[in-house]
User: Fold V-type proton ATPase subunit a from Drosophila mauritiana.
Amino acid sequence: MGDMFRSEEMALCQMFIQPEAAYTSVSELGETGCVQFRDLNVNVNAFQRKFVTEVRRCDELERKIRYIETEIKKDGIVLPDIQDDIPRAPNPREIIDLEAHLEKTESEMIELAQNEVNMKSNYLELTELRKVLENTQGFFSDQEVLNLDSSNRAGGDNDAAAQHRGRLGFVAGVINRERVFAFERMLWRISRGNVFLKRSDLDEPLNDPATGHPIYKTVFVAFFQGEQLKNRIKKVCTGFHASLYPCPSSHNEREEMVRNVRTRLEDLKLVLSQTEDHRSRVLATVSKNLPSWSIMVKKMKAIYHTLNLFNMDVTKKCLIGECWVPTNDLPVVQKALSDGSAAVGSTIPSFLNVIDTNEQPPTFNRTNKFTRGFQNLIDAYGVASYRECNPALYTCITFPFLFAVMFGDLGHGLILVLFGAWMVLCERKLARIRNGGEIWNIFFGGRYIILLMGLFAMYTGLVYNDVFSKSMNLFGSRWFNNYNTTTVLTNPNLQLPPNSSAVGVYPFGMDPVWQLADNKIIFLNSFKMKLSIIFGVLHMVFGVCMSVVNFTHFKRYASIFLEFVPQILFLLLLFGYMVFMMFFKWFSYNARTSFQPETPGCAPSVLIMFINMMLFKNTEPPKGCNEFMFESQPQLQKAFVLIALCCIPWMLLGKPLYIKFTRKNKAHANHNGQLTGNMELAEGETPLPTGFSGNEENAGGAHGHDDEPMSEIYIHQAIHTIEYVLSTISHTASYLRLWALSLAHAQLSEVLWQMVLSLGLKMSGVGGAIGLFIIFGAWCLFTLAILVLMEGLSAFLHTLRLHWVEFMSKFYEGMGYAFQPFSFKAILDGEEEE
Assistant:
């Protein structure tokens, strides 16, 4: 039962494993997830460790899997989900077959991809040629045929002679559309305006063979005269990455070439289709096993990474590792080691020895799906010191309750309950969502927190009798009207005296009649302000009392008298007394009494009374009233203040003087021990370190002061004393945020009702129904966005601050480090989140 209230007890263990059983043993430990290994090769480079070759082999397998997965996603194939059937880590023999299969698949995919790129490149070139031939039909006329000659048909001498006789030459091709204008300007400059360019934009984009992205291109024909100009134009085309294609000047020849190109395109399209089908079949076959292969490789890589933390013994026949293990899981670890040895048929069993250490162990709080969210809230402040009292257990109740005090509304709490219940009831289905985003992961991880916050908000909403800013008359109001109809109709304001217009007390929560009262805010302010102070003082008293649990566990019994007693006295004699006077005031003054000093008009202000108590002042009471609530109150208040003031030097000097006194006794005892206990030690030897214990000097949750000079101890204690005294005042005032946010939430809800929804409720007729429908939608939107989301987040953050600062600072140290076990589940979940 103790592990529910504090972190689990840890043991530092040393394991001896045979090399042939090391892989399977670590695999079994990874499945259990209850061992945190220590690195015994800190001074060894990562590239010089024993299993670095196997790690590189796993890296290569991961690279191949990532490549195949990329190709699968490129084809739009959905990988199967194997959350319910996660494979175990493979043995080394299975990895050889997997490696060969992945190598074959990768080679086949690379070959198919390269062939596809080549064929698509040919297809693109043929398509561009067809577009050139089709789009240049309008560039030529019958008259031009007599005067044109293609530079691609004529020979060098004949072409030069033809151009010398005045015939024009031309080049045709395709260029990217965004480069056309620069291309045209460049041709103009190099030819000084002696090039005639015709172009036509392609309507349909072409696909890039390598990337598959659409490319918009333009067909062009450049007419020129002269061989020198022809060479310049070709150089410009090369510089602008324009593709040149042969284009006959004869109409019949162009028609014949177009037919040949279309035939070749149809054949190439058929080959591409068959290639795509073969590629799809290969990827579909691989996709069935790829998730399992990926998990197996990740597990194998994690095993070899862990084995690199082990150290080889001197005889090279045994692997030695050190690890932290929860003492409750020691049988599980021993069974995992025996199963690992039995899996490979090892005749020599593995050993697990618990060793003593002075090192602070990691902190491990075993959680379930309900408590995990609350534990994360505590760990976000700081991981608890080893075996320190864990506040998460109490936060399960105090956190949603303080949230509900600020978020008290039955309707808004019901919205949170419905949202939290939906996530809780459908958690298996929702847990499969992988790409929900960071915000969704936060909401889903805190689903039980949201559910409890909603339930407590519904409870406080019933106490406040507040449902979307309206009240419910469940039990019948205890107030009644003594005025006649004429008086009610002729007077805008009427007063209901409690001694004549009220009978009894409303059974549960706030009487609904306060919804109609003009002094509603004044009454609720007084009620919620006092309520916030009462809850705040109780919360802080509980936090101070929790320090006793730590002192007792770490055997720091002197700190109970030197720290806890003055702290609790200081808190109770001042602010605890103020809370007592609030209750005393509620019970002592009654509207039905005939004795004037006990009427509500004579009730003194608790705040003014507390200020006078601290300043030793008096306030003149109204005529016929008493300044104090009972006779011996001034003497009692002076005694409380004096005792509280005495607690300050008690906290300031008690612990340093105790340390100074005990340090002298320890020095004397150590001197005697050197003469007796260590007599048999040889010269130069040192005593063996003692085992880890929970005493003041060694415990993680305690403060050891053996090495600190007394001056630092005095300064340290002075800082703590000043911090506690001042924080007691400031933290009490900080709990007033419970009242402030509750008031703001109620007023925002009332404004939304009066300024939005009530306008629709006042409408009539068909138009009124339509208007009410629209206004109701707007009201729902504002309610969810402002009152539930924004106000809920604000109340959540304020509640978190009250726990981190006001509550946990009284006893929580939070100087530990988290237990991070070697767990396959944690490794796979972490990679999925990334």
Notes: The first strand starts at residue 10 and ends at 17. The longest helix spans residues 92-135. Confidence is low (pLDDT under 50) at residues 142-166, 670-703. The chain has 27 helices and eleven strands.
